[in-house]
Design goal:
The chain is an alpha+beta fold. The protein has 4 helices and 7 strands, in the order αβααββαββββ. It has 2 domains: 43 residues; 92 residues, Fusion Protein Consisting Of Minor Coat Protein, Glycine Rich Linker, Tola, And A His Tag, Chain: A, Domain 2 (2-Layer Sandwich), CATH 3.30.1150.10. The longest helix has 41 residues.
Amino acid sequence: MMVFSCKNNGKGNEEVPAPAEEAVEAVEAVENAAKEGAEAVENAAEEAAGRVDEALERLGDIIPYTSVEVKPTFNGGDADAFLKYINENIKYPQSALEKEEQGRVTVNFVVDQNGKIRNAKVVKGVSEALDAEALRVIENAPDWTPAKQDGKNVPVTYSVPVLFAIR
């Protein structure tokens, strides 16, 4: 239960706001603050959404795609052209031959928006010598024609198996 009390110090006719009017004014003040707060929150959310869109667009140049409209090409060819390059440039490490090491080394890398190979790493290796040789050949490869998405050059991830077999 609320009790409102008002004293006018014996001044009889002096107007004192009615408690109900004070309550209405307080509620209106709260409603106005809430409305202003909601507008401020909405404006901040719109600004944040715009900044997120800009950041995602910039990240598109950094975070590689896994699927694109136009795939990267190597020396004007397809994936076989790159495998041919690898086969022509691979040198079987002598230490691996002596130990009779053989198998498939899988290397992941990024063909960036400029066609350069970046971030090459062995994801499935065989031995230190074979892994290092697979990386060497891939990292020293000539530039590619970059991938395209929405008409723009974009980075894309690539995975290549490098097969080492003693014959």
